[in-house]
Design brief:
heterodimer; A: mainly alpha; MetI-like fold; 13 helices; 0% strand; globular; B: alpha/beta; 6-stranded mixed sheet; 4-stranded antiparallel sheet; 12 helices
Chain lengths: 340, 281
């Protein structure tokens, strides 16, 4: 068991290391001037000499492998460097924004998780009838709309035309109360949820449809069990392991959606920050943001795998469980022979 | 004896791209209490559809085109699946071909039997249902039932699984059990054990059994009457002896000839063997 999780942890760390290498070199290959984000417009007036000194101060003149080694050394000790733009520790910059993203992404995830389950079950219950067909059509159309476009459309309707909801930010400066924050949350949340809900509902619907056609459902029907008991107690229970693995993979998916939506709504979260850091060559900030996002993705896919294995009675990991089952089957067979 | 099941001129059809497919064509049958009726015919001749149409387990697209189905005196021809719930389990129940598929993979077999016990008795205590499930498991010949109660279906052998399915089928003491190819997925020695079990259950509980099979040899020892089905119609029916010794319809004779001749000849396994199946009880 320890070896099993040890292996997974090693995989996680190895992947993160590769990711950091990749991001480090790709970021430096991208065109742009990191000095601009640190010194602003002053860069344009700098002489070659001053410029060289400035680069030296930010340690951008060493060969790339040396720079990477220095970054890695710091990172392993918890020092991820300073942000060129904000001129403070990157961890501090990220910390203040992460909460906003967690609120937006977390709420969206919970809503998608519960909504998809409810919608999927509803569709299977009304399989083939008008309600099911209608939800399928509308869902497919909605999930095809790009998030940035939907965001703009909603801003046009609710902020510009109707003036009901604010079009950007997480709160009004100087206000920041709960009601104010909620108002700012509505539109971005709506876009993220609408963009993802159908995809996962469809997963639930398909998975449940498979279960509803399983033969055990016939046996349960034939002994008089009601439709609701079969669907909710048995089919759902059997579909749950794969749903939970899918939802573990949905975390990065929804997080990605959140990033895009944040950028459109100028919502001060990790998404907007990533966009800015890439645009302004804020290397240290970009590195840490990529690592955090990458860690979430990798961790969630490992989680998905583990959840699937743990919850499915037939899929206990490794030969251990298989051996137990074989022994049990053999013993049962013996019992049968002895009896008759 | 009163008839627990009467079918008059029943036709069932499915819509398809080429028009309506008639799966069952004008079948009439009666089943007396405690009787074992074997429904024999090749794959696809409509045996399963006939049973499932009686239990209203067919997909919604299936239509009963004509005829009547009586459960005792009750006309259930036009019952919806919903109305049928009250009768399922208590009056009719079913045993399926593949016992692994027929059991829910994520629940212990004991829990599934206990669930069947409580279907129409929601106020029964869980402990009481458990006790009854253990009784049922012993009744169908599962030894060390306490241990097996907690096992998942995949942890049991095929024969044990089929015994669990049968325990579920008899949990509410139904009047009629449809056994849809109950031994096809099992190997030969286990087949014999399961057929013995059916014989014993009929003796103990007095339930009528409709035994569906494509194999004359399997049903030989147990059936009181045999109905031979071909392309949705019953081409010949009569007592087991009559069908085995003097098949009249050409299809019946062909079906008899399809039996492997080595060892278990059909002529030797009729009549007297009917008692043979229950002799050791």
């Amino acid at each position: 068991m320890i070896a099993y999780y040890g292996k997974k942890l090693l995989l996680l760390l190895g992947s993160l290391f590769l990711l950091s290498l990749l991001v480090f070199f790709i970021a430096r290959l991208a065109p742009g001037d990191p000095l601009v984000s640190y010194y602003g417009d002053r860069v344009e007036k700098m002489s070659t000499e001053e410029r060289w000194q400035a680069e030296e101060r930010l340690r951008l003149n060493d060969p790339l492998p040396v720079q990477y080694a220095r970054w890695l050394e710091g990172a392993l000790q918890g020092d991820f460097g300073i942000s060129y733009k904000y001129k403070t520790e990157v961890t501090e910059v990220i910390g203040s924004r992460a909460v906003n993203t967690l609120i937006l992404g977390g709420t969206a995830f919970v809503l998608v998780f519960a909504g998809a389950l409810a919608l999927g079950v509803f569709c299977v219950w009304h399989e083939g009838r008008l309600a099911d067909r209608l939800i399928c059509r509308i869902g497919t159309a909605l999930s095809c709309i790009p998030e940035f476009w939907l965001s703009l459309l909603l801003i046009l309707i609710f902020s510009v035309a109707l003036g009901w909801l604010p079009s950007s930010g997480a709160y009004t400066p100087g206000d920041g109360g709960l009601w104010d924050r909620l108002q700012h949350l509505v539109l971005p949340l709506l876009v993220v949820v609408l963009g993802h809900l159908w995809y996962y509902s469809y997963m639930v619907r398909n998975r449940l449809m498979e279960e509803v056609r399983a033969e055990y459902v016939l046996l349960q029907k034939s002994c008089g069990l009601s439709k609701s008991a079969i669907l909710l107690r048995h089919c759902l229970r059997n579909a749950l392991p794969s749903y939970l693995s899918i939802m573990a993979l949905a975390v990065p998916h929804i997080m990605g959606g959140t990033y895009v939506v944040e950028a459109v709504f100028s919502y001060p979260g990790l998404g907007t920050l990533s966009y800015e850091s890439a645009r302004y060559q804020d290397y240290n900030l970009l590195m840490l943001l990529c690592l955090i996002s990458g860690a979430v993705v990798i961790f969630c896919s490992l989680l998905a795998q583990t959840v699937g294995e743990r919850l499915d009675r037939r899929l206990k990991h490794g030969a251990e469980a298989a051996a137990v089952a074989t022994v049990a089957a053999a013993a049962a067979e013996e019992g049968a022979c002895a009896h008759d | 004896m009163t008839n627990v099941l009467t079918i008059e001129n029943l036709s069932v059809s499915f819509p398809s791209a080429t028009g309506e497919q008639k799966a069952v064509r004008g079948v009439s049958l009666t089943l007396a209490a405690g009787e074992v009726l074997a429904l024999v015919g090749e794959s696809g001749c409509g045996k399963s559809v006939l049973c499932k149409s009686i239990m209203k387990l067919l997909p919604e697209a299936a239509r009963i085109r004509s005829g009547r189905i009586l459960a005792g005196d009750l006309d259930i021809t036009n019952y919806s699946s919903r109305q049928m719930e009250a009768l399922r389990g208590r009056y009719f129940s079913m045993v399926f071909q593949d016992p692994l598929g027929a059991l829910d993979p994520s629940f212990a077999v004991g829990a599934q039997i206990a669930e069947a016990v409580r279907v129409h008795a929601p106020h029964m205590k869980r402990s009481e249902a458990r006790r009854r499930a253990l009784e049922l498991m012993e009744q169908v010949g599962i030894e060390r039932a306490e241990e097996r109660y907690l096992l998942a279906p995949h942890e049991l052998s095929g024969g044990m699984r089929q015994r669990c399915v049968i325990a579920i089928a008899i949990a509410q003491q139904p009047r009629v059990i449809f056994a849809d190819e109950p031994t096809t997925a099992l190997d030969v020695t286990v087949q014999a054990q399961i057929m013995d079990l059916f014989a014993r259950l009929r003796e103990e509980t007095g339930t009528a059994i409709v035994l569906v099979s494509h194999d004359m040899g399997v049903v030989a020892g147990l059936a009181d009457r045999v109905a031979v089905m071909c392309a949705g119609e019953i081409v010949e029916s009569g007592t087991a002896e009559k069908i085995y010794y003097a098949p009249r319809h050409r299809y019946t004779r062909e079906l008899m000839q399809a039996l492997p001749k080595l060892g278990r000849r059909p002529a030797a396994s009729s009549g007297p063997q009917t008692e043979g199946g229950t002799r050791h009880e």
